[in-house]
Amino acid sequence: MKHQRKIPLVVAAAAVAALALAGCSSGATGSSSGKAVAITGVMPLQENPYFKSMCLGAKASAKEHDVNLTWTGVASADTADLLNAFNAASISKPAGMLLDPFDPVAFVQPVKALMASGTNVIAVDNALAQHVDVTNVGTDGYEAAKEAAGQLGKLLDGKGTVAILGANPTGSSAVARTKGFIEGLKSFPDVTVLPTQYEGLDSAKAADIVSGLIQSTPGLKAVYSVADTGGSGAASAIKAAGKTGDILNVTFDAGPELVSGLKAGTFDALIAQNPYQMGYQAVEILAAKARGEGKASYPQHTEVGFKWITRDNVDDPDVASYLYASSC
Prior knowledge:
- The strands form 2 sheets. Strands 1-3-2-4-5-6-13 form a 7-stranded mixed sheet, sandwiched between helices. Strands 7, 8, 9, 10, 11, 12 and 14 form a 7-stranded mixed sheet that branches.
- It starts with 8 loop residues before the first helix and ends in a 19-residue tail after the last strand.
- By secondary structure, the protein is an alpha/beta fold.
- The chain folds into 2 domains: about 140 residues, Response regulator (Rossmann fold), CATH 3.40.50.2300; about 130 residues, Rossmann fold.
- Strand 7, helix 6 and strand 8 form a beta-alpha-beta unit.
- The protein has 10 helices and 14 strands.
């Protein structure tokens, strides 16, 4: 069991100072009348294109719904760092907060307490271990991974050995993307699935794992990654081994580097989420709740969809909204 670490006041104060430097605000310019609503986004991996896209969606929604949006977070995926940022952002008591809880257990009690204090909270991307927030706005990772398995199974003509690179064993999204993929490949009895290995959101570690698998598994035909770090590491290892095109490389996410890699042939398919819509819809719901205009209750999960992207459809107009941004 993981234990939540209490954050001393001096640490919280330091975190507030750090957030003042790292955060950005977006003023309300929408058409709705009345006082602007204060909403804060607290995210890990701030420089990742995934969260840049989420930020853009949140800003667009803030302009439309009279929201003063503050977008903060940390550069890492470390739970303690993100808890510090969460606690610091909570001090101002915003009307709403959207949060990506990379550790779904550690954030249950903090979110529950913040909700009880009057701040509505929406978990985006990863869902909390308990439904103590308004809703989880994100992608059904299980179904997206299951579809990816079906598509990859066809590309492999129903046979071969597949490696899975997990991000971590606790994050709800990463776990769902692993389970759904394994379930989807059950439709292909001649496909062998290797035990999942975890790269910890570290592309260098992912490259080392895949390099080892290429050497130890002569029949390796594909690598599937639940996050962009795994996919990038796999691409490096496959290229270094001279196996580009021989070992298929499929990953979640669709940042600029991955899209370029897809076009260049170092990736064979991307499973894109829609972080822009996650940010947009979360802010929209929180603004409505703050004004007493929202629903009495929301479903535990609010789906934003996903897209299977290959070189054949990457330039299609209906795919453009799923490609991640490089800045916000």
